[in-house]
Design goal:
The complex is a heterodimer of chains A (281) and B (120).
Chain A (H helix, E strand, L loop, with lengths): L1 E5 L7 H12 L3 E5 L16 E12 L9 H5 L5 E4 L2 E4 L9 H5 L5 E16 L2 E8 L7 H8 L7 E5 L6 H7 L4 E6 L3 H16 L4 E5 L8 H9 L3 E4 L4 H8 L4 H4 L4 H19 L1
Parallel strand pairs in A: 1-8, 1-9, 2-7, 2-8, 9-10, 10-11
Antiparallel strand pairs in A: 3-6, 4-5, 6-7
Helix pairs in contact in A: 1-10, 4-5
Chain B lengths: L1 E6 L17 E6 L5 E5 L1 H4 L5 H12 L3 E4 L4 H9 L3 E4 L5 H9 L17
Parallel strand pairs in B: 1-4, 4-5
Antiparallel strand pairs in B: 1-2, 2-3
Helix pairs in contact in B: 2-3
Classes of the chains: A alpha/beta (281), B alpha/beta (120).
């Protein structure tokens, strides 16, 4: 079962929740950090990581074969190719690596070459296993690396996916094949605003979801009112506590500081499981 | 000679848009005939990325030999330069003011992009 932990707004507690969920699931779980632009789960599992390089495909042009027909520039949806007279300009930093240009080129002037886009890391400490992605500096396109991280999932009972914030391509790539999405938010106007964007995105993707309110006793009640009105279950409320924040800043998993919350996370895992089996019925 | 000027309006007295890639329109002013054409750039206004590149391609298609705008980023600059189009940066308020400055020789062609992409 794949559980994605997403948010909309950044800094609401996706990593905190992902780590806590993965640690209550123990050896049954694989934690996947798909926030490849700034992966941070590994900071909480402070042990040596095995890394391997990941390559994406980028077009290169053989000008001798190019007839300047312009087909590559027309098919590119990302404005990464400009055909000007008999000159073809490539902008690799805009390329999403879809390969469309190579397929429409009638003379074989374009071909794809490997370009390093980042690294995949893996580590294990006690019962916790992690796979994560680290996007190369200067690389702007994270979805190919996110897909590569997701391909590393095995037969674990639970795969917990720590997603990137926002609602654009990286987030969509990370949540896409989840059985259930947990949206972590905070009870503030900003938290609520971005939660509504994330909810709209997940509805578009037809994914079942529930909400976790972090720092629940701060802010106001508008997130709860919104969830009630929209029929979205609030599955967990995490209290706003200094000892939890202190533990996080020291690189400790929340449950180390607040072991009494373990029960809540075990129940959360069960609740998610029940909802997934309901959906499957 | 044809000169493209980024603008939010439709006429010579319209405001000059400081943005190149995401300007809603370009006025193509023919300094010989005095003819003025309006070229829409709305598609680029909403482009997720590469708006400057597409704007530069649009300008190249109009046959303009110069662009007057507020600021021009590196990718647009590369395309315009490849197309042999000169870029002039100005703080002029209107299209007419920009054309006058150009005609009076008060604008210098830029050697480089003067801003990073997404500067706004």
């Amino acid at each position: 079962m794949k559980i994605a932990v997403a948010s909309g707004k950044g800094g609401t507690g996706k990593t905190t929740v992902s780590l806590a969920l993965a640690s209550v699931a123990g050896t049954d779980a694989l934690l996947m950090d798909c926030d490849v632009e700034e992966p941070n789960c590994h900071l909480f599992i402070s042990t040596e990581q095995q890394r391997e390089k990941v390559y994406g495909l980028m077009p290169v042009i053989d000008k001798a074969l190019c007839t300047s027909c312009g087909k590559c520039g027309k098919i590119c949806q990302f404005n990464a190719i400009a055909v000007l007279g008999d000159n073809v300009l490539l902008f690799p930093e805009l390329c999403h690596g879809c390969g469309g240009c190579v397929r429409v080129c009638p003379t074989g002037a374009l071909k794809e070459v490997d370009k390093e886009i980042g690294e995949i890391g893996g580590c294990r400490k006690d019962d916790l296993s992690l796979i994560d992605g680290h996007l190369s500096i200067g690389q702007a396109m994270s979805p190919p690396l996110i897909r590569a991280v997701k391909n590393h999932g095995g037969k674990e009972k639970y795969i917990i996916v720590d997603c990137p914030p926002g609602t654009s391509c990286p987030m969509v790539t990370a949540v896409r094949d989840a059985d259930f999405v947990l949206l972590v938010t905070e009870p503030t106007p900003f938290g609520l605003h971005d939660l509504t964007l994330a909810v709209d995105t997940l509805r578009e993707l037809k994914l079942p979801m529930g909400v976790i309110i972090n720092r629940a006793d701060s802010g106001d009640d508008k997130v709860k009112a919104y969830c009630k009105a929209e029929g979205i279950p609030v599955m967990l409320e995490i209290p706003h506590r200094r000892d939890i924040a202190t533990a996080y800043s020291r690189g400790e998993i929340m449950l180390q500081a607040a072991p009494e919350l373990s029960l809540m996370f075990r129940k959360l895992l069960k609740d998610v499981e029940n909802r997934v089996s309901e959906v499957k019925k | 000679m044809k000169i493209a000027v980024s603008t939010t309006g439709n006429s010579l007295d319209a405001e000059l848009d400081q943005r190149f890639g995401r300007a809603p329109r370009f006025l193509i002013v023919d300094t010989d005939s005095g003819n003025v054409d309006v070229v829409d750039n709305v598609q680029n206004l909403n482009a997720a990325q590469g708006a400057g590149i597409q704007s530069a391609m649009t300008i190249a298609g109009t046959g303009a030999q110069a662009v007057i705008t507020g600021h021009c980023g590196p990718k647009a600059f590369r395309v315009l330069s490849e197309a042999g189009i000169k870029i002039y940066n100005t703080e002029a308020k209107t299209v007419r003011e920009a054309i006058t400055l150009y005609s009076d020789g008060k604008l210098n062609a830029a050697d480089n992009a003067d801003v990073e992409g997404h500067w706004l």
